[in-house]
Amino acid sequence: MIEITFLGGGGGRFVTITQARATGGFFIRTSKNIYVDPGPGALVRAWRYKIDPRKIDVLFISHRHTDHCNDAEVMVEGMTMGVTKKRGVLIGSRSVVYGDEDHTPAVSKYHLDALEEVHAPNPGDRFRIGEDEMIITPSIHSDPTTIGFRLKTRFGDVSYIPDTQYFDELKKWHSGARVLIAAVTRPRDMRIPYHLCTEDIVYMLKDMKEKPEILLMTHAGMKMHFANPYKEAKFIETVTGVKTYVAKEGFRVTIGKEITVRTLRPARFV
Ligand SMILES: [Zn+2]
């Protein structure tokens, strides 16, 4: 069985600043523990759902924008038992690991040195993660080094499309995934450069050879937040026939023979 727990479903500057929706990324419990895109609040939100950063095996960071990587270093401190133990794997975009002309690396040398492995892969690269295999996928985003993934597991593939504009190849990389997580930032009629909107997802799904069993919309920006992401999800589902959910803090998807979803109650101690 695989469990995906969301520590937020928001993204973009204004949702992040206001925390109109949480921005903590998501956690996959499969044969290893994989934390994805620890945006602002990731550490605090994780503990609310009893996710212990000391148990993270792999930290995946799609790109070096604050809403995806703000809590990266503190997660590395968790993974390495407070930087006392060489442990854990970081898979991040080149901008996360090395920085770029506009950004310093998201993780300092001090933190990188504490990890067992650090990778800044290219699309098509593959990693063995416990019993699963991760294939790195491409994106076209304002951070040109942005990466996504497709995780091949014995319960089917879990695919992640992070911030990107639509491009035809996306379909090929993610066709046949059982669970598709996608950063759908904008609602209908409100496309912006370098991000997906509702129409992009509809267009992609309609044309996909093998459609996913479920779509999980995440990274709702402020315009999506006000347009009502549940309405957008319903629209996507009606037009494409793909069961569509809106990710939010505490939303858990369990993937076994069947796929089930529920919203967890946060622990009371925080
Ligand atoms: Zn971004």
Automatic annotation (TrEMBL):
Residues 33-219 form the Metallo-beta-lactamase domain. CDD domains: metallo-hydrolase-like_MBL-fold. GO terms for molecular function: hydrolase activity. Gene3D superfamilies: Ribonuclease Z/Hydroxyacylglutathione hydrolase-like. Pfam families: Lactamase_B_2. It comes from the Archaea. Keywords: Hydrolase. SUPFAM superfamilies: Metallo-hydrolase/oxidoreductase. PANTHER family: HYDROLASE C777.06C-RELATED (PTHR42663:SF6), HYDROLASE C777.06C-RELATED-RELATED (PTHR42663). This is Metal dependent hydrolase.
